[in-house]
Structures are given as C-alpha cells and as structure tokens.
Design goal:
The chain is α+β, with helices and mostly antiparallel strands. The chain is built from one helix and four strands, in the order αββββ. It binds zinc ion.
Length: 93
C-alpha cells in the first residue's frame, strides 16, 4: 500500500510538471506569435505589401477588384493594396 501511494505521488508530480511545461510552451508560442505579427505590422512598406497579404483582410469588391484592409468597418478605411483611403460600406448578403 505504501509503495503504491508513493507511486501515485510520483505520477502526480510528473503530471503536474508535464502540464506546467505544456503551459510554458504554449505561452512561449503565443509570445512568439505576438512578436511575429508585431514585426509584420511594422514592415508595411508599399514595396513589400505583396509579401504581407496574410495580415490583411483581402476584400473583393462588387466589380472584382481586390482590396486589403487591416480593420474592416463602415467609413473611410486605409487600403493597403491601393495605398489610399477608401469608403467602405459592408453589405449584408
Ligand atoms: Zn483598394
């Protein structure tokens, strides 16, 4: 019985260590992700926008033209594809 209890304690210990390391790992990954988007957000050079399209919302308008918006709301929104402010009005389908 005593040996069993010790084993259970050991298993519990290793389990908590395992969970803790998992937590640390996910926190580390989250941190890395934040840093990645931070860097990406600062490389908004008009010449490099081609390579950063993943951080934009790619919107295709009714006439088939593509636009890139970081935030989408009704009103004037900066389009990173055309490098200008554009009037955006969301239409519900
Ligand atoms: Zn546009």
């Amino acid at each position: 019985m005593k040996k069993n209890l010790k084993l259970v304690k050991q298993v519990k210990m290793s389990l908590s260590v395992y969970i803790l390391s998992l937590l640390m790992l996910s926190m580390f990954a989250l941190n890395m992700g934040c840093k990645g988007s931070y860097i990406a957000g600062y490389s908004l050079d008009p010449d490099t926008t081609d390579h950063n399209s993943t951080i934009f919302s790619e919107i295709t308008d009714s006439s088939g033209h593509m636009h890139w918006y970081v935030k989408l709301y009704d009103g004037e929104v900066w389009c990173y594809f055309h490098n200008r402010y554009e009037m955006v009005k969301r239409v519900r389908k």
